[in-house]
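Next comes this protein.

***
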Amino acid sequence: MLPTQEGSFRLFRFAGINVFLHWSWLVVAMYEISSRRGHYTSFVWNVAEYLTLFLIVLLHEFGHSLACRQVGGEANQIVLWPLGGVAYVAPPQRPGATLWSIAAGPLVNVVLFVVLVGVGMLDRSMGWNIAYPDLHRFLRAAYITNFVILIFNLLPIYPLDGGQILRSLLWFVLGRARSLLVASVLGFVGVAGLIAYALYVQSIWTGIMAVFILMNCWQGLRHALFLAKIARLPRREGYACPECRSAPPLGAYWVCGQCRQPFDTFASQAMCPRCGVSYEQTGCLDCGARRPMSEWILPPSLRADQ
């Protein structure tokens, strides 16, 4: 249940990463900026404050994307919307690579925290809080915004960064499927707490965020159960995913996009037996990577070790 390009327009492209902005962000921005009239002596500061929120979220998402690329993963899209931002990252299916790809986002906020604390100390020492009250309020708002984003994202609630970091750490011990299962279940507990908090403070935005997290927790739980099922299946010899090195399962677990017929793509050499459609790439049910069938074939020297 993540935001997509639908309803979004591309702002720019940097380092091969396309940044999209959902139209609803502009509507919410206008409302939020208007609601803070009178906080500054000039309306320009209200706009600058909201653009700073935009910049902090964007830097956070670029942290995810660039870290994912650093470990050999794919990351080419960021979508910004009223509830924050989403970096579409596909790190190699290893706990260490996933951990770094997720942790890099909050680390950006940690760096910004240090910078903003330093600027705040300069603000007080130079007397800007008295000479330039609007600048002082703006710097304080930037500090609070970054701090709230950092703390919120570190909550151990899946799929927030904290929940995904917890899942990556558990992955080292419990494996891919069970770590996701544990993180998803804990996420439901966290969502219950967020809903209770939203009702207590009567915050509509917190309630919307809680519902969004709830839907993603449910997806995470379903995916964990699917991974557990896949892990128990018998495996085909002579083949291995080029990405995660897992042997593909035996059986009709691939579905033709043309006629929707389930089939065993390795038995039919990437061709649907019903309609005859051939597929240039074969998807791994374990990690989701897609590679040509020729890259799945193990050399004879490795088949004995499988």
